[in-house]
Amino acid sequence: MSMSQDQNKASSLDFILQDIKNRSESYLSTIYALQAFIFVTKEFCQLEKSEIVASIGRRMHYKLNPKKPPCTPDLVIQLHQREGIVGEAKLLICENKDERWNQYIEQLKKYDTELLGWWTKNYCIDETSLVWITELAFSAKLSEFIQEKISTGAIKFDRPYAILEFAKHQRAQEFLFLRTVTGAFPNPIMAKVFKDGIDVSLERMIFENQEKKFYDAKPQDVEYIMEILWQNIFTQEVFSDENENVTFDADKKIWYVPVDLDVLTKKLQNLYGSDGSKNREVEYPQISWVKEALNKFVSIGLAQKSEIDREYIINFKKFTRPLEKFATLINKKKGSSKNKGKQLDLFPEHLLQSE
Predict the structure, then answer these.
(1) pTM for the complete prediction?
(2) Which range of residues forms the domain containing residue 288?
(3) Dihedral over Cα of 58, 220, 232, 178: its sign
(4) What string of DSSP letters covers 213-240?
(5) How many domains does the chain have?
(6) Local confidence band at 349 (pLDDT 50, 70, 90 cut-offs)
(7) Is residue 170 part of a domain?
(8) Are 269 and 284 in contact, with CB atoms under 8 Å apart?
(9) What are the tens digits of pLDDT across the range 100-127?
Protein backbone atom coordinates (compact mmCIF):
# COMPACT_ATOMS: atom_id res chain seq x y z
CA MET A 1 0.00 0.00 0.00
CA SER A 2 1.38 3.44 -0.97
CA MET A 3 1.86 6.33 1.42
CA SER A 4 -1.04 8.25 -0.16
CA GLN A 5 -3.32 5.24 0.31
CA ASP A 6 -2.24 5.00 3.95
CA GLN A 7 -2.98 8.69 4.43
CA ASN A 8 -6.39 8.38 2.77
CA LYS A 9 -7.21 5.37 4.95
CA ALA A 10 -6.19 7.22 8.12
CA SER A 11 -8.15 10.29 7.05
CA SER A 12 -11.25 8.18 6.38
CA LEU A 13 -10.96 6.53 9.80
CA ASP A 14 -10.58 9.93 11.49
CA PHE A 15 -13.76 11.06 9.76
CA ILE A 16 -15.63 7.93 10.92
CA LEU A 17 -14.38 8.35 14.50
CA GLN A 18 -15.40 12.01 14.62
CA ASP A 19 -18.87 11.18 13.30
CA ILE A 20 -19.34 8.52 15.98
CA LYS A 21 -18.14 10.90 18.70
CA ASN A 22 -20.48 13.64 17.47
CA ARG A 23 -23.48 11.34 17.37
CA SER A 24 -22.65 9.89 20.81
CA GLU A 25 -22.33 13.36 22.31
CA SER A 26 -25.57 14.43 20.64
CA TYR A 27 -27.41 11.36 21.96
CA LEU A 28 -26.26 11.98 25.54
CA SER A 29 -27.05 15.70 25.30
CA THR A 30 -30.57 14.85 24.12
CA ILE A 31 -31.07 12.74 27.25
CA TYR A 32 -29.81 15.65 29.36
CA ALA A 33 -32.25 17.96 27.58
CA LEU A 34 -35.20 15.71 28.42
CA GLN A 35 -34.10 15.51 32.06
CA ALA A 36 -33.40 19.25 32.18
CA PHE A 37 -36.88 20.10 30.90
CA ILE A 38 -38.42 18.01 33.71
CA PHE A 39 -35.98 19.51 36.23
CA VAL A 40 -36.78 23.12 35.26
CA THR A 41 -40.51 22.43 35.27
CA LYS A 42 -40.27 21.13 38.84
CA GLU A 43 -37.78 23.64 40.25
CA PHE A 44 -38.40 26.99 38.55
CA CYS A 45 -41.98 27.17 37.28
CA GLN A 46 -43.69 27.70 40.67
CA LEU A 47 -45.81 24.58 40.32
CA GLU A 48 -46.65 22.22 43.15
CA LYS A 49 -43.78 19.72 42.92
CA SER A 50 -45.73 16.97 44.63
CA GLU A 51 -48.29 17.04 41.80
CA ILE A 52 -45.77 16.82 38.94
CA VAL A 53 -45.22 13.35 37.52
CA ALA A 54 -42.95 12.71 34.54
CA SER A 55 -41.67 9.88 32.42
CA ILE A 56 -39.04 9.59 29.68
CA GLY A 57 -40.68 7.07 27.37
CA ARG A 58 -44.29 6.12 28.26
CA ARG A 59 -46.89 4.05 26.43
CA MET A 60 -49.97 6.12 25.69
CA HIS A 61 -53.19 5.01 23.97
CA TYR A 62 -55.52 7.03 21.77
CA LYS A 63 -58.80 7.84 23.50
CA LEU A 64 -60.80 7.93 20.26
CA ASN A 65 -59.26 4.66 19.07
CA PRO A 66 -58.09 2.64 22.12
CA LYS A 67 -57.49 -0.51 20.04
CA LYS A 68 -54.91 1.30 17.91
CA PRO A 69 -51.29 0.39 18.79
CA PRO A 70 -50.00 2.73 21.52
CA CYS A 71 -47.58 5.57 20.89
CA THR A 72 -44.47 6.16 23.01
CA PRO A 73 -43.60 9.86 23.34
CA ASP A 74 -40.07 10.61 24.52
CA LEU A 75 -41.50 12.86 27.23
CA VAL A 76 -44.75 12.85 29.19
CA ILE A 77 -45.24 15.32 32.07
CA GLN A 78 -48.36 15.73 34.16
CA LEU A 79 -48.28 19.19 35.77
CA HIS A 80 -51.39 18.51 37.85
CA GLN A 81 -54.65 16.59 37.53
CA ARG A 82 -55.89 18.75 34.64
CA GLU A 83 -52.86 19.66 32.53
CA GLY A 84 -50.01 17.80 30.87
CA ILE A 85 -47.27 18.05 28.25
CA VAL A 86 -46.26 15.52 25.60
CA GLY A 87 -42.96 15.90 23.81
CA GLU A 88 -40.33 14.55 21.47
CA ALA A 89 -36.57 15.08 21.40
CA LYS A 90 -34.71 14.66 18.13
CA LEU A 91 -30.98 14.74 17.46
CA LEU A 92 -29.06 15.59 14.31
CA ILE A 93 -32.30 16.00 12.39
CA CYS A 94 -30.69 18.09 9.66
CA GLU A 95 -30.01 14.90 7.71
CA ASN A 96 -32.33 14.42 4.69
CA LYS A 97 -34.12 17.55 5.84
CA ASP A 98 -37.47 17.62 4.03
CA GLU A 99 -38.23 13.90 4.18
CA ARG A 100 -37.01 13.36 7.75
CA TRP A 101 -38.52 16.57 9.13
CA ASN A 102 -41.90 15.75 7.61
CA GLN A 103 -41.75 12.38 9.35
CA TYR A 104 -40.98 14.03 12.69
CA ILE A 105 -43.75 16.60 12.31
CA GLU A 106 -46.21 13.80 11.53
CA GLN A 107 -44.99 11.98 14.64
CA LEU A 108 -45.61 15.01 16.85
CA LYS A 109 -48.99 15.48 15.17
CA LYS A 110 -49.96 11.98 16.38
CA TYR A 111 -49.85 13.35 19.92
CA ASP A 112 -52.16 16.23 18.99
CA THR A 113 -55.19 14.31 20.22
CA GLU A 114 -56.64 13.01 23.46
CA LEU A 115 -54.28 10.41 24.89
CA LEU A 116 -54.91 7.81 27.57
CA GLY A 117 -52.22 6.89 30.06
CA TRP A 118 -51.94 9.85 32.43
CA TRP A 119 -51.49 9.44 36.19
CA THR A 120 -55.17 10.17 36.86
CA LYS A 121 -57.97 7.87 37.98
CA ASN A 122 -59.46 7.64 34.47
CA TYR A 123 -56.05 7.95 32.69
CA CYS A 124 -57.32 11.11 30.94
CA ILE A 125 -56.41 14.76 31.30
CA ASP A 126 -58.28 17.94 30.32
CA GLU A 127 -55.56 19.98 28.64
CA THR A 128 -52.34 19.00 26.87
CA SER A 129 -49.67 20.93 25.04
CA LEU A 130 -46.88 19.72 22.80
CA VAL A 131 -43.15 20.37 22.99
CA TRP A 132 -40.37 19.61 20.57
CA ILE A 133 -36.83 19.67 21.99
CA THR A 134 -33.98 19.92 19.51
CA GLU A 135 -30.36 20.99 19.27
CA LEU A 136 -29.48 24.67 18.98
CA ALA A 137 -27.71 24.07 15.65
CA PHE A 138 -31.00 23.11 13.94
CA SER A 139 -33.68 24.86 15.99
CA ALA A 140 -34.07 28.01 13.85
CA LYS A 141 -34.27 26.02 10.60
CA LEU A 142 -36.75 23.59 12.13
CA SER A 143 -38.89 26.46 13.41
CA GLU A 144 -38.96 28.04 9.93
CA PHE A 145 -39.82 24.69 8.38
CA ILE A 146 -42.80 24.15 10.70
CA GLN A 147 -44.02 27.74 10.41
CA GLU A 148 -44.00 27.40 6.62
CA LYS A 149 -46.01 24.16 6.83
CA ILE A 150 -48.54 25.85 9.11
CA SER A 151 -48.83 29.00 6.96
CA THR A 152 -49.47 26.95 3.80
CA GLY A 153 -52.04 24.79 5.55
CA ALA A 154 -49.97 21.64 5.14
CA ILE A 155 -50.29 20.95 8.85
CA LYS A 156 -52.36 22.31 11.72
CA PHE A 157 -51.93 21.81 15.45
CA ASP A 158 -55.07 21.93 17.57
CA ARG A 159 -53.12 22.11 20.82
CA PRO A 160 -50.59 24.69 22.02
CA TYR A 161 -47.05 23.77 21.04
CA ALA A 162 -43.51 25.03 21.57
CA ILE A 163 -40.14 24.28 20.03
CA LEU A 164 -37.28 24.34 22.53
CA GLU A 165 -33.60 24.50 21.69
CA PHE A 166 -30.82 23.17 23.87
CA ALA A 167 -27.05 23.49 23.97
CA LYS A 168 -24.43 22.18 26.36
CA HIS A 169 -21.69 24.59 27.38
CA GLN A 170 -18.81 24.78 29.84
CA ARG A 171 -18.08 27.35 32.49
CA ALA A 172 -16.70 26.41 35.89
CA GLN A 173 -18.89 23.34 35.37
CA GLU A 174 -21.08 21.94 32.58
CA PHE A 175 -24.47 23.52 31.92
CA LEU A 176 -27.32 22.80 29.57
CA PHE A 177 -29.14 25.82 28.17
CA LEU A 178 -32.86 25.57 27.30
CA ARG A 179 -34.90 28.21 25.48
CA THR A 180 -38.13 28.50 23.50
CA VAL A 181 -37.60 29.18 19.79
CA THR A 182 -41.22 29.46 18.79
CA GLY A 183 -44.60 28.84 20.36
CA ALA A 184 -45.35 28.99 24.08
CA PHE A 185 -46.77 27.03 26.99
CA PRO A 186 -50.26 27.86 28.31
CA ASN A 187 -48.84 28.18 31.82
CA PRO A 188 -47.61 31.82 31.95
CA ILE A 189 -44.72 31.15 34.36
CA MET A 190 -43.46 28.25 32.27
CA ALA A 191 -43.85 30.36 29.14
CA LYS A 192 -41.68 33.16 30.61
CA VAL A 193 -39.01 30.84 32.09
CA PHE A 194 -38.41 29.08 28.80
CA LYS A 195 -38.79 32.19 26.63
CA ASP A 196 -36.07 33.95 28.65
CA GLY A 197 -33.90 30.82 28.54
CA ILE A 198 -32.42 29.02 31.51
CA ASP A 199 -29.14 27.30 32.38
CA VAL A 200 -29.28 23.97 34.19
CA SER A 201 -26.27 22.68 36.11
CA LEU A 202 -25.68 19.14 34.86
CA GLU A 203 -23.85 18.27 38.08
CA ARG A 204 -26.83 19.27 40.23
CA MET A 205 -29.37 17.69 37.87
CA ILE A 206 -27.55 14.34 37.75
CA PHE A 207 -26.93 14.41 41.51
CA GLU A 208 -30.63 14.89 42.23
CA ASN A 209 -31.80 12.43 39.57
CA GLN A 210 -30.74 9.18 37.92
CA GLU A 211 -27.70 9.40 35.65
CA LYS A 212 -29.33 8.31 32.41
CA LYS A 213 -27.23 7.27 29.43
CA PHE A 214 -30.15 5.84 27.42
CA TYR A 215 -33.69 6.75 26.50
CA ASP A 216 -36.30 4.98 24.40
CA ALA A 217 -34.51 5.76 21.11
CA LYS A 218 -31.69 3.40 20.16
CA PRO A 219 -28.21 4.97 19.81
CA GLN A 220 -27.19 5.10 16.17
CA ASP A 221 -23.74 3.64 16.83
CA VAL A 222 -23.13 0.33 18.62
CA GLU A 223 -19.79 1.74 19.80
CA TYR A 224 -21.70 4.02 22.20
CA ILE A 225 -23.16 1.01 24.03
CA MET A 226 -19.85 -0.87 23.86
CA GLU A 227 -18.00 1.99 25.55
CA ILE A 228 -20.54 2.18 28.40
CA LEU A 229 -20.28 -1.57 28.92
CA TRP A 230 -16.48 -1.50 28.88
CA GLN A 231 -15.98 1.58 31.05
CA ASN A 232 -18.87 1.35 33.48
CA ILE A 233 -19.77 -2.32 33.78
CA PHE A 234 -16.86 -4.57 32.85
CA THR A 235 -14.31 -2.40 34.66
CA GLN A 236 -16.39 -2.65 37.81
CA GLU A 237 -16.66 -6.43 37.40
CA VAL A 238 -12.87 -6.76 37.00
CA PHE A 239 -11.92 -4.72 40.05
CA SER A 240 -14.72 -5.86 42.33
CA ASP A 241 -13.64 -8.10 45.20
CA GLU A 242 -17.05 -9.76 45.16
CA ASN A 243 -16.79 -11.24 41.65
CA GLU A 244 -15.01 -14.57 42.03
CA ASN A 245 -15.78 -15.66 38.45
CA VAL A 246 -13.33 -13.21 36.89
CA THR A 247 -9.95 -14.76 36.02
CA PHE A 248 -6.70 -13.06 35.02
CA ASP A 249 -4.12 -14.25 32.47
CA ALA A 250 -0.85 -12.66 33.58
CA ASP A 251 0.96 -13.51 30.34
CA LYS A 252 -1.64 -11.95 28.07
CA LYS A 253 -2.67 -9.32 30.64
CA ILE A 254 -6.32 -10.12 30.00
CA TRP A 255 -9.18 -10.49 32.46
CA TYR A 256 -11.84 -13.01 31.46
CA VAL A 257 -15.23 -11.71 32.59
CA PRO A 258 -18.32 -13.93 32.23
CA VAL A 259 -21.52 -11.95 31.65
CA ASP A 260 -25.12 -13.05 31.23
CA LEU A 261 -27.11 -11.19 28.57
CA ASP A 262 -30.28 -10.86 30.66
CA VAL A 263 -28.49 -9.88 33.87
CA LEU A 264 -26.32 -7.37 31.99
CA THR A 265 -29.32 -5.76 30.30
CA LYS A 266 -31.17 -5.43 33.59
CA LYS A 267 -28.10 -3.85 35.21
CA LEU A 268 -27.85 -1.24 32.42
CA GLN A 269 -31.55 -0.50 32.72
CA ASN A 270 -31.35 -0.01 36.48
CA LEU A 271 -28.21 2.13 36.34
CA TYR A 272 -28.68 4.19 33.20
CA GLY A 273 -32.14 3.63 31.72
CA SER A 274 -35.50 2.16 32.62
CA ASP A 275 -36.48 -1.42 33.48
CA GLY A 276 -40.12 -0.86 32.50
CA SER A 277 -41.34 -2.25 35.83
CA LYS A 278 -43.88 0.52 36.40
CA ASN A 279 -47.21 0.62 34.58
CA ARG A 280 -46.86 1.93 31.00
CA GLU A 281 -43.11 2.49 31.35
CA VAL A 282 -40.89 1.16 28.56
CA GLU A 283 -37.59 -0.73 28.82
CA TYR A 284 -34.33 0.78 27.64
CA PRO A 285 -31.76 -0.18 26.68
CA GLN A 286 -33.54 -3.12 25.07
CA ILE A 287 -32.00 -6.57 25.26
CA SER A 288 -31.49 -6.57 21.48
CA TRP A 289 -29.27 -3.46 21.77
CA VAL A 290 -27.06 -5.14 24.38
CA LYS A 291 -26.91 -8.39 22.42
CA GLU A 292 -25.76 -6.50 19.33
CA ALA A 293 -22.95 -4.89 21.36
CA LEU A 294 -21.83 -8.23 22.84
CA ASN A 295 -21.84 -9.89 19.42
CA LYS A 296 -19.76 -7.02 18.10
CA PHE A 297 -17.19 -7.66 20.85
CA VAL A 298 -17.08 -11.28 19.66
CA SER A 299 -16.59 -10.24 16.03
CA ILE A 300 -13.55 -8.06 16.86
CA GLY A 301 -11.93 -10.60 19.17
CA LEU A 302 -12.73 -9.00 22.53
CA ALA A 303 -15.20 -11.67 23.64
CA GLN A 304 -16.41 -15.16 22.89
CA LYS A 305 -19.70 -16.92 23.39
CA SER A 306 -19.78 -19.24 26.37
CA GLU A 307 -21.01 -22.81 26.33
CA ILE A 308 -23.72 -21.59 28.69
CA ASP A 309 -26.74 -20.22 26.83
CA ARG A 310 -26.93 -16.40 26.67
CA GLU A 311 -23.55 -16.03 28.37
CA TYR A 312 -20.44 -14.35 26.96
CA ILE A 313 -16.83 -14.25 28.13
CA ILE A 314 -15.33 -10.77 27.81
CA ASN A 315 -11.59 -10.53 27.09
CA PHE A 316 -11.06 -7.39 29.13
CA LYS A 317 -8.06 -5.12 28.65
CA LYS A 318 -7.44 -1.56 29.73
CA PHE A 319 -7.92 0.92 26.86
CA THR A 320 -7.10 4.62 27.11
CA ARG A 321 -9.76 5.55 24.55
CA PRO A 322 -12.12 2.57 24.27
CA LEU A 323 -14.62 4.14 21.86
CA GLU A 324 -11.84 4.89 19.38
CA LYS A 325 -10.42 1.40 19.86
CA PHE A 326 -13.75 -0.29 19.13
CA ALA A 327 -14.49 1.92 16.12
CA THR A 328 -11.02 1.21 14.69
CA LEU A 329 -11.35 -2.56 15.15
CA ILE A 330 -14.86 -2.60 13.67
CA ASN A 331 -13.75 -0.53 10.69
CA LYS A 332 -10.76 -2.84 10.18
CA LYS A 333 -13.06 -5.86 10.33
CA LYS A 334 -15.35 -4.35 7.70
CA GLY A 335 -12.37 -3.61 5.45
CA SER A 336 -11.08 -7.15 5.84
CA SER A 337 -14.49 -8.61 4.92
CA LYS A 338 -14.74 -6.40 1.82
CA ASN A 339 -11.25 -7.39 0.64
CA LYS A 340 -12.03 -11.06 1.16
CA GLY A 341 -15.15 -10.68 -0.93
CA LYS A 342 -13.22 -8.99 -3.72
CA GLN A 343 -10.63 -11.77 -3.76
CA LEU A 344 -13.30 -14.43 -4.06
CA ASP A 345 -14.82 -12.61 -7.00
CA LEU A 346 -11.60 -13.15 -8.94
CA PHE A 347 -12.32 -16.87 -9.24
CA PRO A 348 -15.02 -18.43 -11.43
CA GLU A 349 -17.99 -19.65 -9.42
CA HIS A 350 -17.53 -23.30 -10.45
CA LEU A 351 -14.01 -23.32 -8.99
CA LEU A 352 -15.36 -22.26 -5.59
CA GLN A 353 -17.82 -25.15 -5.40
CA SER A 354 -16.76 -28.24 -3.49
CA GLU A 355 -16.57 -31.54 -5.31
Answers:
(1) 0.88
(2) 222-340
(3) negative
(4) ---SSPPS-HHHHHHHIIIIIIHHHHT-
(5) 2
(6) very low
(7) yes
(8) yes
(9) 788 888 888 999 999 999 999 999 999 9
CA atoms of 198 and 267, how far apart (whole Å)? 33
Note whether 194 and 48 are same-domain residues. yes
Q: What is the CATH number of the domain that holds 203?
A: 3.40.1350
pLDDT per residue as tens digits for the range 156-207: 999 999 999 999 999 889 999 999 999 999 999 999 999 999 999 999 999 9
Q: What is the mean pLDDT of the chain?
A: 89
What is the sign of the dihedral through the CA atoms of 206, 207, 210 and 211?
positive
The average pLDDT across 220-249 equals 93
Determine the longest span between alpha carbons in the chain, in angstroms.
80
CB 261 within 8 A of CB 291: yes
In-domain check, residue 70:
yes
Among residues 214, 208, 227, the alpha carbon closest in space to that of 271 is found at 214
Looking at the domain assignment, is residue 350 inside a domain? no
* 86 and 204 within one domain: yes
Identify whether residues 236 and 305 lie together within a single domain.
yes
Cα within 13 Å of Cα(53), Cβ side:
14
Question: What Å distances lie between residue 180 and 37, 141, 214, CA to CA?
Answer: 11, 14, 24
For residue range 80-107, what is the model confidence (pLDDT) as tens digits?
999 999 999 976 555 556 777 888 888 8
DSSP-H helix ranges across the chain: 3-44, 97-110, 136-151, 188-196, 202-208, 222-228, 235-238, 261-272, 287-299, 322-345, 349-352
pLDDT band at 351 (very low <50, low <70, confident <90, very high): very low
3-state SS of 28-73 is HHHHHHHHHHHHHHHHHCCCCHHHCEEEECECEEECCECCCCCECC
Residue after which a domain boundary falls, among 178, 208, 238: 208
Beta bridge partners of 4: none
> CB of 48 within 8 A of CB of 80?
yes
